[in-house]
From TrEMBL:
This is histidine kinase. Residues 41-256 form the Histidine kinase domain. It is found in: Cell membrane. The chain holds residues 557 to 826 of 954 of the full protein. It comes from Paenibacillus contaminans. It comes from the Bacteria. Signal peptide: none annotated.
Length: 270
């Protein structure tokens, strides 16, 4: 987007021309757009849980309720408060990452137990999906920050579950590609329309199609994953067939000198 300014040019009192300044304001425009997306996301995502916290606390305060009903309302209030905390934490995390203020504690990290644990937690949360881990390489150790890597897989597995039907298969494939470890997460879900692919990792971007309008979210999850992958000198990519499913690939550089003890050759989950 180009904005053009023009100024008359004078030599003394004599006008001898016009100065045209062409300024690329694409990024300013994008920032403005993001701000308005932020305002609408925040107003929706903050208001919805707050409205139910208010509604249910009023019921608890002013109505005679059976203990089991009280418990049900309290658990809704608890869930909604957790959702709010999640949104605020994601927002602050992303802010820190983008400004380079996020601290990373790098060490050798084995991805296998992290991924398994993320799946276990997903199942505890009553997910009805099937998970399959396929190891096409015995490599699984990268140089990274374990907490941040957990956040990557929590967001990725969470999305695979959120945007695919119950009973759907979520497959996680480990492969080596040159000096990198590549983890592919595939689901049998809604998929991603082609025009959305390039915007998917932008902050606050959500696909506003009728197939997913009811699914809650903030549009921050993939932006956070992208920032974490960049901090690990890695990459994230996506391929999708709309209506059939999506495959996200996470690429981590392999540590230069991998000790044999990290190859987990005694692991039987291949
Ligand atoms: P959120 O899930 O909070 O909206 P994300 O940044 O995690 O935000 O994802 C951005 C958008 O990308 C989502 O709104 C969703 O439409 C789409 N998306 C993400 N993961 C998947 C997936 N596995 N399948 C289909 N669509 C997805």
């Amino acid at each position: 987007i180009i904005r053009v300014y023009h100024e008359p040019l004078y030599w003394g009192t004599e006008r001898f021309g016009t100065l045209f300044v062409h300024r690329d304001i694409t990024s300013e425009y994008e920032v403005d757009q993001m701000k308005s997306e932020f305002v609408s996301t925040v107003s929706h995502e903050l208001r919805t849980p707050l409205a139910s916290v208010l509604g249910f606390t009023e019921l608890l305060l002013y109505k005679e309720l059976k203990p089991e009903r009280q418990r049900k309302y309290l658990s809704t209030i608890h869930q909604e408060a957790q959702r709010l905390t999640g949104l605020i934490n994601d927002f602050l995390d992303l802010q820190r990452m983008e400004s380079g203020k996020q601290n990373y504690v790098f060490q050798e990290v084995d991805l296998l137990p992290i991924v398994e644990n993320v799946i276990e937690l997903q199942n505890v949360n009553a997910s009805l999906h099937r998970f399959e881990i396929v190891r096409q390489t015995d490599k699984s150790v990268v140089w990274g920050d374990p907490d941040k890597i957990r956040q990557v897989f929590t967001n990725m597995v969470g999305n695979a579950v959120k945007y695919s039907p119950n009973g759907g298969l979520v497959q996680i494939v480990y492969k080596q590609s040159g000096d990198s470890l590549v983890i592919e997460l595939s689901d049998e879900g809604l998929g991603i329309p082609e025009d959305a692919l390039s915007k998917l990792f932008s902050k606050f971007y959500r696909i506003d199609n009728s197939d997913r309008r009811e699914i809650g979210g903030t549009g921050l999850g993939l932006a956070i994953v992208k920032e974490i992958m960049l901090a690990h000198q890695g990459e994230i990519a996506v391929a999708s067939e709309y209506g059939r499913g999506s495959t996200f690939s996470l690429r981590f550089p392999l540590p230069r000198m991998q000790e044999p003890s990290h190859s987990l050759s005694d692991d039987s989950r291949a």
